[in-house]
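Researcher: I'd like a structural prediction for the single chain below. Treat it as a standalone chain; there are no partners to consider.
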Amino acid sequence: MTDSTKFFLPEDRLPKAWYNLAADLPEPLAPPLHPGTGQPLGPDDLAPLFPMGVIAQEVSLERWIDIPEPVREVLRLWRPSPLVRARRLEKALDTPAKIYFKYEGVSPAGSHKPNTAVAQAFYNKEEGVRRLTTETGAGQWGSSLAFAGSLFGLEVEVYMVRVSYEQKPYRRALMETYGATCIPSPSPNTAAGRAILAEDPDSNGSLGIAISEAVELALQRDDTHYALGSVLNHVCLHQTVIGQEAMAQMEMAGDQPDVVIGCVGGGSNFAGLAFPYMAEKLKGAKVRCIGVEPTSCPTLTKGPCAYDYGDTGQLTPLVRMHTLGAHFMPPGSHAGGLRYHGMAPMVSHALNLGLMEARAYQQTECFAAAVAFARQEGIVPAPESSHAVKAAIDEAMRCKQEGKAETILFNLSGHGHFDMQAYTSYFAGQLTDPAFDPAALERALADLPKVAGA
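Model: Treating it as a single chain, here is the predicted structure.
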């Protein structure tokens, strides 16, 4: 055991391949289905939206997929990211637990999202695509794709969930600094947006609506593809550099985690850290993996696992996932990146297989945990990441009650420097806990598509 606080890998230890959990699952994932025919999708069905390099990764069962050198070259701008032992937090909590966090806020966009944005931009550029459309909640993904697009000479158009567009003007400014166009969603630019605005001119928007707008526009032009920041297999795949680095750094620390934690919205940052550890769990390692979501959008903890659309406008393929229903409208919250009705199929499958646990927290208790963390460790967490902080603190306090010196590892997936208005509201006592409406869930689930044999 070392007395060090920070653990850095040299650039030559940056992973050379992505890890694909699909290769090791004891039961395969259910296939995605065509939204029109209901039949399993083929590569040609996805070609209007994604480059073939990405489509191949989406359906791959290979355990390791090489990272192209041009992608690794960009990742080296900030990777490998640091592993930090939260010694001051441990002391403040008076816990026998050891707490480590993998800090993804060191990326140019301030979160884990560029890990996949750079890869997706690269594969689109290789295929001759000139323009990308996408959605974003809190703006972490939109700013990451804007950054990646600027490096590879791609035009980027981002549809930002309206409530976050209004809450986070600096995240919008960051996208524009990287050269992207940022539009509040729902917008009058698309049929999907116009339909929502006709029904509710003051709609806060949702990731499901923003996805519909971005997909609709991508399908209209041959020079345009759609890029997704979470949920799909290839996105989770690209994020596994996080867990691979963490494993090497935990070896440097002379330690191994008993508990691995990440917040979950679409599931990518959790998957990035946890999937490599799930591979070890499948080999017999005793490690708990915990995904943490908001109680206002409790996809894993309250949503059934069923085939559903990834967007409100029902343009995307049907995937089997934990879902609140494509028409479910989560209440406004500052963790905009966690306001998604569905969950990555691979994460959903991992939960169903017993490879992970899920829990949900209220907004204000997560901010309280984030403030406690910031006052000891100096880093202000993004509202999304605060959910992982809260779970890590709860696990550390459990260790204190049980007298166990367990090791806890969580993904601090981004900093909150563009989210300070949320902290201002919290300190002013103006931050509330958005209410979850069971009746709204019941209505949304009534609209789940009927899939034969599912």
